[in-house]
Amino acid sequence: MKLLDNKTALITGAARGIGRCMATMFADEGANVIFTDLKETDSSTALVAELRAKGVRADFLAANAADTARAAEVAEWVAKEYGRLDVLVNNAGITRDNLLLRMSADDWNAVIETNLRSVFNYTKAFAPMMLKQRSGSIINISSIVGLIGNGGQANYAAAKAGIVGFTRSMTKELGSRNIRCNAIAPGFIETPMTKQLGEEARRYWTDQIPMRRIGLDTDVARVALFLASDLAGYVSGQVICCDGGLNL
Ligand code: NAI
Fold it and tell me: Taking the mean position of all CA atoms in its chain, how far away is CA 21?
């Protein structure tokens, strides 16, 4: 018996990075996986093939996570094709870093729309299905930046902190129907998102991390796997930092 046998999961923004890693780990544990990203690419096509080769059902849907109407269409499609959703991972996210005085309203809006509105979109779209099932696990990918702040990332920090408040509110709204809602707050994780940072920034952050190493996508995916599975059956409303101790 695998940890996610008979479960169906949807992960937003999973063509690469942490989302992709979660998709493969969930499939390895027996879950059917639907994932979204902005558009179909070689990477999304390859991931569908990789997941199906593991013997589970897998599908990709092109969907901008910030688009509320598209989220409703995705939920309708999942209801028709899969009939249920056990695990929703709100993972899609972007950065548009700048100091406040140089931050444009467009950069503010883009980050809030993609990182926070998306969480509202998909939770709202899939909540009715989970309420009917009387079960579900919602996992929202926040960031330690949402807890401790970071100069140059006011938009990102605000969105990620917003996710924490949203997560705890959903815990209270949906808990009586056996729907759990938790957040993961990753620290500095090696992905295409962080690859663009220079050597100096990487050294600076590594020195700040008590465990003295940058995190891996698998570090975060394992926490998501726990929250998705019945091992976390009585865990809700939590923000689990996965950051080598950086938040302290
Ligand atoms: P990434 O940039 O490697 O991957 C993000 C994926 O989301 C990409 O495939 C991208 O195309 C997709 N995406 C972007 N905008 C989208 C939209 N509007 N709709 C649908 N898909 C969209 O990023 P990474 O590092 O894998 O990040 C995943 C999540 O983890 C994000 O929410 C990020 O904020 C969060 N995170 C990452 C950390 C890190 O150090 N890498 C640290 C803390 C949080």
Answer: 11
First to last CA, the chain: 37
CA distance 47 to 218: 16
Q: Residue 77: CA atoms inside 13 Å, Cβ hemisphere, count? A: 16
Task: Give the whole-angstrom CA distance, residue 229 versus residue 139.
Answer: 11
Give residue 13 CA to ligand 1 midpoint distance, Å.
Answer: 6
Annotated catalytic sites, by residue? 156
Region 14-33 average pLDDT: 98
- For the stretch 90-119, pLDDT in tens is 999 999 999 999 999 999 999 999 999 999
Q: Cα of 172 to ligand 1 centre, how many Å?
A: 27
Query: Which residue matches tokens 């199906």?
Result: 52
Tell me the C-alpha distance between 167 and 90, whole Å: 11
**What is the band of 181 on the pLDDT scale with cuts at 50, 70, 90?**
very high
Q: Token digits for 248?
A: 């302290």
Substitution site in 10, 11, 25, 38 for ligand 1 pocket (most atoms within 8 Å of beta carbon): 38
pTM, full prediction: 0.98
Residues with CB under 6 A from ligand 1: 12-13, 15-19, 36-38, 64-66, 91-94, 114, 141, 143, 186, 188-189, 191-194
